[in-house]
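Take a careful look at the sequence and tokenised backbone pasted below. I need to know what the token row says about the fold.
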Amino acid sequence: MRLIFIRHGDPDYKNDDVTEKGKREVELLTRRVTNWDITKICCSPLGRAQATAKPSIEILKEKSNIQVETYPWLQEFYYYQNGKKTGVCWDFLPDFYYSQKKFFDKNNWHKSSHMKKGNVPNNYKKVCNGIDSLLAEYGYIRNKKGFYTVQNQKPNPNFGKENKIERYQLVSEKNLTEDTTLVFFCHLGVMFTIMGHLLGMSPVQLWHNFYVAPTSVTILNTEERLENQAMFRVERLGDTNHLTNGGEKISSSGYFTELLQEIKK
């Protein structure tokens, strides 16, 4: 199974849309996405994600009977207090962030006093239940150990007695084909939340120590080295080749320093 996460285009947060720059980014992204063999497109209900996905969906629907669905749990991961949305549950300055030891604990980060005040545990549960329910539709069932049990697994040369796993994994070109690809048009916060769940990491560390630019592409694949077992591994993180190759600067929205720009002239 392959999961592809796309952050929405350069955001116009005030109007929940993409900016004019975001529209240029989306145009370049669409050329890339519409060349993929996609099983299903999953989209956040928020306007900026919908605007980013719309051109790809329209083109792909003309080519094939692509599955498309909007999921409420894919919207940005907000922080609430007293029933009111007060912002995202990250963007902490160093003194506070590094003083909160639970933030670095994959099992207890959402149980910290700060996160509890913002009703984060409940929102986190919705996201985890959402992604696990979706994966279960394709036969990937999360087990108590934190990885996934695979039902109706397709034949895999890793399992053959004639192939030693250690040797096979060292071959640079694998004779494997991927027939299930889910593409998510969503947001930095919820994307890292899902990745933390799939990879066994605290998403707080991903929120604070990693950045993915608008319209960037992040890819996770399942490695299935044993029968009926799968774990997720990151293939690419925040890939922006479509922008670089298209002569469009990478947006730094949500980042607090200068980005390396490699535009081809």
Residues 120-137 form the longest helix (18 residues).
